[in-house]
Write a structure and sequence with these properties.
Elements lengths: L4 H13 L2 H8 L3 H15 L4 E4 L2 E4 L1 H4 L1
Antiparallel strand pairs: 1-2
Helix pairs in contact: 1-2, 1-3, 2-3
Length: about 60
């Protein structure tokens, strides 16, 4: 199944911003929608891409790769 480019764009925004909220604002989408897309991408790839905490998100080794 080909990956959705929107999900990749959202991943890059979260990676660069270090925050799902800031990435959502940057991409002009609501935060819950971006979170859903990110979880779907992780499910499609069968790998966790970010460690989530109250301070933001940090890429996992797979997310860095």
């Amino acid at each position: 199944m080909p990956l959705d480019l929107r999900k990749i764009r959202y991943f890059v925004a979260v990676y660069e911003e270090g925050s799902v909220s800031r990435a959502a604002a940057r991409e002009k989408v609501v935060q819950p929608a971006l979170s859903v897309q990110l979880r779907q991408l992780e499910a499609e790839l069968s790998v966790r891409l970010f460690d989530r905490s109250a301070q933001g998100v940090q890429p996992t080794p797979a997310g860095h790769h």
